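Notes continue from the previous slide.

Worked example: a multi-chain complex. Inputs as given:
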Amino acid sequence: MVQADLLIHSGTVVTLAGHSAQPARGQAMSSVGLIKDGALAVRGDSIVAVGTGAEVRAAGWLGRETREINAGGKLVLPGFVDPHTHVLYAGSRENELAMKLAGVSYLDILKQGGGILATVRSTTQATDEEIKAQTRKRLARMLSQGTTTLEIKSGYGLTVAEELRALHLIRELDEEGVQDLVPTFMGAHAVPPGWSEEEYTTLIAEEMLPQVARESLAEYCDVFCEKGVFSPESSAKILRKAREVGLKLKLHADELESSGGAELAARVGAVSAEHLLRASDAGIRALAAENVIAVLLPATSFNLAQNVYARAKTMLAAGVPLALATDSNPGSSPTESMPFVLTLACLYLKLSPEEALTAATINAAHALGCAALVGSLEVGKRADILILDVPNLNYLPYHFGSNPVETVIKRGRIV
Ligand SMILES: N=CN[C@@H](CCC(=O)O)C(=O)O
Ligand SMILES: [Zn+2]
C-alpha cells in the first residue's frame, strides 16, 4: 500500500465534515465533527485518512517514510478561509485614527477625499513590486494566523488600467503559491473624483467588466452599495452586467445605513452579502429564502467603534448560512487575524465557538465556491491543516490578543 507522507495524531481534531455540499445553517452550524484522540494522514497535497488514531493507523497508510507529528492533545483544525479582504494596496491610514476619535464619520472622511480615495492615491502611485511586497507581508501575517485560503478584492484603482493592474497583481501573488487566492473585481468601491456615480457606473459596466471577463481575471464582482457611494440602482446595474459576463456576485450591503442591500443581494442571486450591520428584517428573510450567505465582519464593527454589530443570531434563526471574514483593509479593518475575528464573533455576534468556527471554515469556503476543496478535514480534500496550541475549542475564542496557531500545513507542506 502507498504510504502517507504525514501523520498527525493524538490531537483534538475538529473536522467540520458533512457540510461540503451545502453551507451549514441553523442547528447544523453547531455540528463540527470533533474527534478526541484524532488523527489525519496526508499524501501529497491531499488528506487520505481522518478518524481516531486507531482508525487511521488501521487504514494502513503508515509506513517507514511517513513523518509523524504528535499533536499532544492540541486542537487540529482545517485552515481558516477568509472570504472577504481588501489586502492588495500600498500605504496605510493611521492618520485617520485621530479624525475618527474626533468624531468624523467613515463616510465623511471619504467625502473629504480620504478613506478609500486616500488608498487609491497611495496604491496607484506605487509600483507593482511595492504593492506586491506590502501585500506579501499581510499575506504572511494571515498565514501565520492560520488563513490558508482567502479572497482579495480589487478596488483601489478606480480606472480601467488600474483595476486591471490590481487583478493581474492578485493573479501573480496567487501564482507564488503560498496561499490560494480568490480574485474579486470591485471597481465599484468608490466613485472617483471628477466622475458622477452614473458616469462611473457606465464605465464599470461597459468597459471594466467586459475586459475583466475577457482576461478571466476575477471569479466574483462586488459593489459597495451604500448611501452616498453606489445606490441600489447603480449596484443592480453593475451586478446584472457582471452576471451577464460570467462572474458570480457579492455585495457590500447595509454596512453604514440600511439601504435595502440585503434585499438586493437576494434579488440578483448573489452568492453572499457582506457586512449587514443594519440589514432589515425583510432583508434577512430574503437572504434565507434565496440561500445567500451572510459574510459577517465583526472586526469592522469593532473598528468603526459605534457598537453596532450584525444581528447574527436573528440571521441564524431565520436560516441564513453565516460566514466570517476579516475584511482586512487599511481603513475599516486593519487586521489580518481570523482568530481575533472568532473572538469578536463569540463576544459580540453571540455565536457559540462551534458556530463561529463553522462560519470561518466550511461556510467561508462556500462563500468562495471552493467548499469541495477546502474548509473541512475530509478524505480527498486539500491538506490545509492547523495545529493550535489550545487545549479545546472554547479556549480558541476565549483567549485573544496572541497568535494561537502553532503549525500551518498548506497543501500538505509544513510552512
Ligand atoms: N466598505 C467598503 N470597503 C471596505 C473598506 C475599505 C477601506 O476603507 O479602505 C469595507 O468593506 O469595510
Ligand atoms: Zn469590504
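Summary box: The pocket of N-(iminomethyl)-L-glutamic acid (ligand 1) is lined by residues 86, 115-116, 119, 224, 252, 255, 300, 327, 329-333 (CB under 6 Å). The longest strand covers residues 34-43.
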